[in-house]
Specification:
alpha+beta; Cytochrome p450; 4-stranded mixed beta sheet; two-stranded antiparallel ribbon; 18 helices; 10 strands; binds protoporphyrin IX containing FE; Cytochrome P450; oxidoreductase activity, acting on paired donors, with incorporation or reduction of molecular oxygen; Cyt_P450_CS; iron
Length: 491
């Protein structure tokens, strides 16, 4: 009883710290999910550290994540207030960052109305059209597969959010999102000292060491541009009567006809949600899949055989084929697990003090799930570093009884990614169509030697494969004809 009582007053175990600064010097600056996974091996699946008295809890097992984020979701759906991203970079308009309030609920509800599974069929035709464009670009300049895939994903979300059709590579609106995401991703991922010593935010910009303030100022401007410029474009087009149907246009139209108690607030909610749709994580998933295909050619061949059995090599795959292709589903699930592209999920916050496994989780503690560690737990997913879609297939159908759904790649509890269905649809049609038409293989250099692509990923909130080279070649002579006819069909 005595030991239990003592344990209950203790934080979960973690590295020993120092007086006042706590674990400031132990904090990992690179690939923190790997360092935290090591801590989990040493201290247990729920670990903690403290910096200047603030507790951070790291959750590294599916069991603890389910218990805290899902079963006790009322207590763990809040977000910590982050000085860099929310205050100095002014990202508080983005509901990913919002605390667990009615304002967050209003945003999430509006978003959900448009992006829940049964509403997604309305995006099928533009996803299909943009996939054909992607295949066409891959035939012209396969070496530029990274910008082509990025453009594909951005085009889908820009069309859905603003009705905007991306014109060419290096599109102004696509770049708005790319440049805005860079500093905020850096801000959330880095352990900036100002997060633990909030008074530092009052340091003037020119002060030595106040680099974070200059970074924040620049980030705030980019975030405002991302939020306002495309939204104002749609409003201008609506005045001219030439706006295309989209999330923004539909909702502003609805506001105009139905009104709202607080029209300004309602319009801001539409504007804010639209800018969130913009976020480009799906391209990281598709690129992770490309890297897996080049590493595992036999899996690629098997996937192609499954597709050919359905399309008979005379047409491209369609969304209606999806249920007949569990192998492709398993490949995408395995890509989500093999390298979760948000390896440390966005931080949650404990609203009230709680207890887990006899340890204390203080009110206000930041609680971060180490998704990478959870999806690489070898007890749950044997040989976790091997890309093996078969782990989710039993008797030819998807089955999570032996190895669970890697859904944690999309986050936890009430804050789980509400864009996941759109993301999976966009990834599915692209992946199935590329498999139907192209072989992805190792590139060769000028001397004819094979270039071995390395399985390496970037550090950051969103982690994608480091630049790698591949060869993308048509699988059979009629491929160009199939793409050509598909293009004619949609014109
Ligand atoms: C493969 C692609 C994607 C992955 C892996 C992904 C992953 C995530 C993760 C890990 C979170 C944090 C969840 C948490 O706090 O526990 C999140 C939140 C979110 N995602 Fe995604 N996401 C993807 C695509 C998208 C897309 C395409 C959209 C928009 C259309 C989107 C919109 C959001 C929003 C709005 C949130 C904030 C939810 C909230 O705080 O309530 N995501 N996502």
């Amino acid at each position: 009883v005595h030991i239990r009582k003592r344990k209950r007053t203790l934080l979960p175990p973690g590295p020993a710290g120092h007086p006042i600064v706590g674990n400031l010097f132990e904090l990992p600056h690179n690939y923190p999910w790997l360092a935290y996974a090591d801590w989990a091996k040493r201290y247990g699946d729920v670990t903690s550290f403290k910096v200047f008295g603030r507790a951070v809890i790291i959750v590294s097992s599916a069991k603890a994540a389910t218990e805290l984020f899902e079963k006790r979701s009322t207590n763990y759906s809040d977000r910590p207030r982050m000085i860099m991203s929310d205050e100095l970079m002014e990202w508080e308009w983005n509901f990913i960052h919002m605390p667990y309030t009615d304002r967050w609920r209003r945003h999430r509800r509006l978003f959900h109305q448009y992006f829940q599974p049964r509403k997604l069929t309305k995006y099928y035709s533009s996803q299909h059209k943009l996939t054909i464009n992607l295949l066409d670009q891959l035939s012209r300049s396969p070496q530029h597969f990274v910008p082509h895939i990025r453009q594909y994903v951005s085009s889908i979300v820009l069309k859905a959010a603003y009705g905007y059709e991306v014109q060419a590579e290096n599109d102004f609106y696509v770049n708005l999102a790319l440049v805005a995401m860079e500093p905020v991703s850096h801000a959330i991922h880095e352990n900036f000292l100002v997060e633990f010593m909030p008074l530092l935010k009052y340091v003037p910009d020119w002060f030595p060491g106040a680099y974070f303030k200059r970074l924040a100022k620049d980030g705030a401007k980019k975030a405002r541009d991302l939020r306002d410029i495309p939204f104002n474009m749609v409003k201008d087009l609506m005045v001219l009567g030439s706006a295309e149907q989209s999330f923004v246009c539909d909702n502003l139209e609805k506001l105009r006809t139905e009104g709202a108690l607080d029209a300004k607030e309602a319009e801001d909610t539409v504007r804010n949600c639209a800018a969130v749709i913009y976020i480009d994580t799906t391209s990281a998933l598709i690129l992770t899949w490309v890297l897996a295909m080049v590493q595992y050619p036999e899996i690629q061949k098997r996937a192609q055989a499954h597709i050919d059995a359905v399309t008979r090599k005379i047409r491209l795959p369609e969304f209606s084929d999806r249920n007949s292709l569990p192998y492709i589903e398993a490949i995408l699930l395995e890509a989500l697990r093999w390298h979760p592209i948000v390896p440390l999920a966005a931080p949650h916050r404990a609203i009230e003090e709680d207890e887990y496994d006899g340890y204390r989780i203080p009110a206000g503690a930041t609680v971060i799930a180490n998704t990478w560690a959870i999806l690489h737990d070898e007890e749950v997913y044997p040989e976790p570093s091997i890309f093996n879609p078969e782990r989710f297939l039993h008797n030819g159908t998807i089955n999570f009884e032996v190895q669970p759904d890697p859904i944690f790649s999309f986050g936890y509890g009430r804050r789980i990614c509400p864009g996941r269905h759109l993301a999976m649809n966009s990834a599915w049609i692209a992946v199935a169509s590329i498999l139907a038409t192209y072989d992805i293989s190792k590139a060769v250099d000028d001397n004819g030697s094979i270039i071995e692509p390395k399985v390496e990923f970037t550090d950051g909130l969103v982690s994608h494969p480091k630049p790698f080279k591949v060869q993308i070649t048509p699988r059979y002579p009629e491929v160009n004809k199939i793409i050509h006819f598909a293009k004619m069909d949609i014109q």
